[in-house]
Design goal:
Elements: H1 6-55, E1 57-59, E2 62-64, E3 81-87, E4 92-95, E5 115-120, E6 127-138, E7 142-153, H2 155-206, H3 221-264, H4 272-293, E8 304-305, H5 306-320, E9 326-331, E10 336-337, H6 341-358, E11 362-369, E12 374-381, H7 411-421, E13 425-430, E14 436-443
Parallel strand pairs: 9-11
Antiparallel strand pairs: 1-2, 3-4, 3-7, 5-6, 6-7, 8-10, 11-12, 12-14, 13-14
Length: 446
């Protein structure tokens, strides 16, 4: 799929919007000006009709118009202003000198008091005409019906319209250019944070900075914060892998030395059990470091219901542990874990396994929303508990509160690492059942 520039898309969209808007604006103004010209022409024609009527006199049943009309254009041929008077039958009884050599068609015959507008072709530009019907009462001859026609050339109006259009579209074109330049500047200013983020990412890629450091608009904060979380998580993952490899190499030195000695000196009294112990130690170290290396990663929106996982885990314990301990589950169906099911199962599995190993018969597992945005997981038993002096030590790899009990000593260390990977805390104290109570407090994403 062809990639498109966000800036070009915005500029193209704004250009189209500006073109449509200014085009419609120009058409609307043009139409409004044409309507105003037509209205002004009708008003002038009506005034010319009143001028002729004011100058005319009825003499012996005949309407007489003086030769010195106030409007001089009536007296000049092809002046662009024309007038005539007809009788009720439409016959011309007077016409202005400006009509010399021109033919005026019959035209409409309006009723007395009626005004009729029309277009006709007296000259090359065309004309607008107004016909007015009237009845004139004469004491001697009675009432006479007359029609006064006045026409005006459209040449002046067309020149005015052309000049207006030239000015209008010139200004609209200039406004469009100014608008596009302004839009381009605004767009460049608006996209500047994105360009700055790209530059910072290039600096991160070159190793010159660790995260995006600039201040960004609030609309971009979720994006930049997410990128920074990913960058920090990746950096933490690399650091964790490096530390895990270093710790693994260190933890394997002693077992490998023992195994090498057993192979080089088979008769020095080392038992087969000693070799198996060292192999188990190597296996535990490898499993622990692999689990630890995989903890530090960004979790993007996983949500796992706690109750189904806890119920399945307790059913497994009930099937495998004899005699069966008394298992108590306190968890609402609405409680969720902010990660995948596998990691929730590993957390609870290690805690419940530790509790079943030391309990006298009672285990309690609770999960609750402890305040806004916080998940609390609690596993406690009625066993001997963990002394205060040992509570921090048992969270370290390979350490056990009871050295005589079976186990590799990595379960609680894995739980602690996984809990910290979620930004949580782990505490150990004495619970209501009298034994060890281990509490995990994990923040929930907003």
């Amino acid at each position: 799929m062809k990639r498109t520039s966000l800036g070009r898309r915005l500029l193209l969209a704004s250009t189209l919007v500006a073109a449509v808007f200014l085009g419609l604006t120009g058409l609307a103004l043009d139409q409004a000006y044409r309507s105003s010209l037509a209205e002004a022409t009708r008003d002038r024609l009506q005034n010319h009709v009143y001028t002729l009527l004011a100058a005319a006199r009825l003499d012996g049943g005949q309407l007489q118009v003086p030769s010195d009309l106030p409007e001089a254009r009536f007296h000049h041929p092809e002046s662009g202003l024309y007038g005539r008077i007809r009788d009720g039958s439409g016959n011309t009884i007077w016409q202005s000198e400006s009509l010399l050599g021109l033919h005026w068609p019959m035209g409409p015959i309006p009723a007395p008091g009626e005004l009729t507008y029309s277009l006709l072709e007296l000259d090359q530009e065309g004309n607008r005409s107004l016909s007015y019907g009237l009845s004139w009462e004469d004491p001697d001859t009675g009432t006479g019906v007359f029609i006064v026609d006045v026409a005006e050339s459209r040449a002046d109006g067309l020149r005015q319209l052309g000049a207006f259009r030239q000015t209008l579209w010139g200004w609209l074109g200039a406004a469009a250019a100014a608008l596009l330049i302004t839009q381009a500047l605004i767009q460049r200013w608006g996209l500047a944070p994105l360009h700055r983020a790209v530059r910072e990412l290039q600096e991160v890629r070159r190793g010159r900075q660790d995260v995006l450091q600039s201040e960004y608009p609030q609309e971009l904060e979720p994006l930049t914060d997410g990128i920074n979380r990913l960058l920090r998580a990746e950096r933490e993952r690399r650091r964790q892998v490096q530390h895990s490899l270093a710790d693994l190499a260190h933890s394997l030195k002693t077992p490998l030395t023992v195994l090498r000695g057993a192979l080089e000196n088979p008769g020095d009294g080392r038992s087969r059990q000693d070799v198996l112990d060292q192999i188990n130690r190597i296996d535990a170290s490898v499993r622990y470091q692999l689990a630890r290396a995989g903890r530090s990663r960004e979790r993007m929106g996983d949500q796992t219901p706690v109750r189904p996982v806890a119920e399945r885990l307790l059913r497994t314990v009930a099937a495998l542990r004899q005699p069966l301990p008394l298992l108590d589950l306190d968890c609402d169906a609405t409680v969720h874990f902010p990660g995948p099911e596998e990691e929730l199962l590993e957390l609870l599995g290690n805690l419940v396994e530790n509790a079943t190993r030391y309990c006298d018969g009672n285990i309690r597992l609770a999960a609750m929303d402890n305040g806004p945005g916080t998940l609390t997981l609690v596993v406690e038993d009625d066993g001997p508990g963990i002394s205060e002096a040992s509570r921090q030590r048992v969270l370290d790899r390979g350490e056990r509160a009871d050295e005589q009990a079976p186990g590799s000593g990595i379960g609680l260390a894995v739980v602690a690492d996984l809990c910290r990977a979620y930004g949580g805390t782990i505490t150990i104290d004495t619970g209501d059942l009298g034994g060890a109570r281990i509490t995990l407090t994990i923040p929930m994403p907003a």
